[in-house]
Specification:
The complex is a heterodimer of chains A (107) and B (286).
Chain A lengths: L2 H20 L7 H23 L7 H22 L4 H10 L1 H10 L1
Helix pairs in contact in A: 1-2, 1-3, 2-4, 2-5, 3-5
Chain B lengths: L3 H57 L7 H39 L5 H15 L29 H53 L6 H11 L3 H25 L5 H19 L9
The chains are: A mainly alpha (107), B mainly alpha (286).
């Protein structure tokens, strides 16, 4: 992973967090709201940790692991662009919960 | 006539000497005042960046899972952010001290205390603060700046000090610029999200739901149209920070006036105070 790859990853994390933040929870069911809370927490933590630990401050091991996770986040962002309904968006984002949580931990 | 020529020459020489001698202290005085204003302003933006992030996060927390792990991890991330910004604040204090000591030196305080203090401050400036996430700035960007020191415009002590500190100070100012840009990004990204939610909840929903639209709705709609004052303020800080880098080069060359910059920093400081007093956005996605 290069500095510009990391910048792209940061942009993707920001886009994923923004999509979650902007979901109108009034339109979600009780179960979906719970899922939304979980993914929102993971995405915000990944977003803040990425801001705190920019590329230069990361270990070599972290940099190589980030490469794999960056692919997952990019896929989520691409899939999101094709969806409008909040529950469909949450479906995509919910599947990425594990990747976002791992990312937050790694940074 | 022949006798009067040397007198005239002596008078001219005296006038020129006086002009040259007064140039350095008055400029150094300007540097000390402007340097203090500059570091004070950047410290205010630094503190504002932390408050803004905390405000946003505090608004978000009630919408996250209410368990111990969530609260702990989000709190730790914010503590780390606070530590980064404290390191930045300390670095800015070192810069303010440096400008004050340099000013004292230029005004004629050539005692060993001043020169020793300056040496230690430059050593401290050479060590970039531990700001983790904020990108390191290459020292190559300011290489060769010592060559800009205009020998004939500074006293021997000031000249020696400027040659030694030209690059470390310029590097510190450039690093400040990068830190500021990073902070601006933190603030603008959160501000934009909060703005979109505010529009949806306070403008769009009442409008399409055919509710009675009172003064609150009108003000919310007008607020959405106008440029966000916070962002405008940060753009001003960014421009002033770039001006400060140019001002440092002017100091080395023994040129320029600080009046313009002093006015800019005065205005910025009062704008920051006004921004701090403003009612914060709720940053609440619901």
């Amino acid at each position: 992973m290069t500095p510009s790859d990391f910048e792209a990853l940061q942009n993707d994390v920001h886009a994923v967090f923004s999509a979650l933040y902007l979901i109108d929870v009034d339109l979600l069911s009780a179960e979906e709201r719970k899922q939304h809370q979980q993914v929102l927490a993971a995405a915000y933590l990944a977003f803040v940790n990425a801001e705190n630990a920019r590329y230069t401050a990361l270990s070599t091991k972290a940099k190589s692991e980030l490469g794999e996770l960056a692919g997952h986040v990019k896929t989520m962002r691409t899939q999101l662009a094709e969806l409008e309904a909040p529950s469909e968006q949450l479906g995509v984002l919910g599947k990425g919960l594990d990747a976002l949580a791992r990312l937050a931990k790694l940074l | 006539m022949l006798q009067s020529i040397p007198r005239i020459a002596v008078c001219i020489a005296l006038v020129l000497t006086a002009a040259c001698a007064s140039k350095t202290p008055s400029q150094a005085e300007g540097l000390a005042t402007t340097g203090k204003q500059y570091t004070t302003t950047l410290k205010k933006v630094n503190s504002f960046a932390l408050d803004h992030t905390l405000e946003f996060t505090a608004g978000l927390l009630p919408n996250l899972p209410r368990d111990n792990t969530t609260l702990l991890t989000q709190t730790q991330a914010m503590q780390q952010r606070a530590e980064l910004l404290q390191a930045t604040s300390n670095y800015l204090d070192t810069q303010a001290l440096y400008f004050a000591e340099l000013s004292a030196l230029a005004k004629g305080d050539t005692g060993t205390g001043t020169t020793r203090a300056l040496r230690k401050l430059v050593e401290a400036l050479n060590k970039a603060p531990d700001v983790g996430g904020i990108p390191r700035v290459s020292k190559e960007a300011v290489a060769g700046l010592a060559g800009h020191v205009a020998s004939w415009k500074h006293s021997a002590q000031v000249r020696e000090e400027l040659i030694r500190s030209a690059e470390p100070v310029a590097h510190a100012l450039l690093l400040n610029q990068h830190i500021l840009q990073e902070q601006i990004q933190w603030i603008t990204q959160r501000e934009e999200l909060a703005r979109q939610v505010e529009y949806r909840e306070k403008v769009l929903k009442p409008f399409v739901e055919d509710k009675k639209l009172g003064e609150t709705w009108k003000n919310a709609w007008m607020k959405h149209i106008k440029q966000v004052p916070t962002i405008e303020l940060l753009e001003q800080a960014k421009a002033a920070s770039i001006d400060m880098q140019q001002a440092w080069v002017n100091v080395l060359r023994g040129e320029g006036s600080f009046e313009h910059l002093q006015g800019v920093f005065d205005q910025l400081n009062s704008n920051i105070q006004a921004a701090n007093k403003r009612e914060p956005n709720t940053h609440d996605p619901k």
